[in-house]
């Protein structure tokens, strides 16, 4: 439960610095917290990455200010760190689908985010099928993107997956899938100050893609069926809000790994989705 307490304290930190541009990478390293582990746990418990949570809360507070109508738009935007008024208007429209000037008219329809609280309930019965097994490390070949920790969102993972599917890269990767793990692997980890995302396949063959190797160890593999963007995130919420408190297992969250067992239409409701969670040694 110490993890839960730390996440709750970090929410307070974000609320206290809601108007600032927080350097999450620096803050977490100053706290001696491994960024990838923290972001995985925070996102699973809260439902958003730290950056997403701050932006949602910031835009909500701005909406309240605009609805009250006591100050000029330009003064409010500057107070919340937006020095370019046109960029602020664009960000506000992306958040709520309306212009800041329409806030009073549509205020009661806005998707506001209040200060978050989350429920942790130990699971009574399994929600997802799971198996525990020792997995030898294996080679992954694939495409890689790297993102700033400060602005990383798990949605970027599925945007990248969609891009690779639309451009037939997944189809090409599957031609090299001669390793013992069948399907598309999504590997997410923190390396060199960046969040690195690799999407690829298990392979023994030479290939014109980047490569990496997974760690050997004990894993719990959770499995379900459906759109990976929806199912995998729900599995992570289940793991960190329920399963881990019932099982009282120590998890290695320094990286995340998912497997989509499909040959085409990777966002199909019929996709088989697995989340591989490494257990601590």
Describe the protein in words:
It is a single chain. This protein is of the alpha+beta class and 281 residues long. It contains 10 helices and 8 strands. The protein has helices at 2-16, 24-30, 35-46, 50-68, 73-79, 85-96, 103-106, 155-166, 169-174, 228-247; strands spanning 129-135, 139-148, 184-191, 194-202, 210-213, 217-225, 255-261, 272-278. A hairpin with a 2-residue loop joins strand 3 and strand 4. Helix 3 (35-46) crosses helix 10. The chain is globular and about 65 Å long.
Strand content: 15-25%
Sheet with the most strands? 8 strands, antiparallel
**Which whole number gives the mean pLDDT?**
91
N- to C-terminal separation?
19 Å
Task: Tell me the total number of β-strands.
Answer: 8
Structure annotation, total helices = 10
| Radius of gyration, taken over Cα atoms and rounded to an integer in Å | 21 Å
Sum up the overall morphology in one term: globular
Structural class: alpha+beta
Helix-strand sequence = HHHHHHHEEHHEEEEHEE
Low-confidence stretches: none
Helix content: 40-55%
Strand order of the largest sheet: 1-6-8-7-3-4-2-5
Task: Write a concise keyword list for the protein shown above.
8 strands; 281 residues; alpha+beta; 41% helix; eight-stranded antiparallel beta sheet
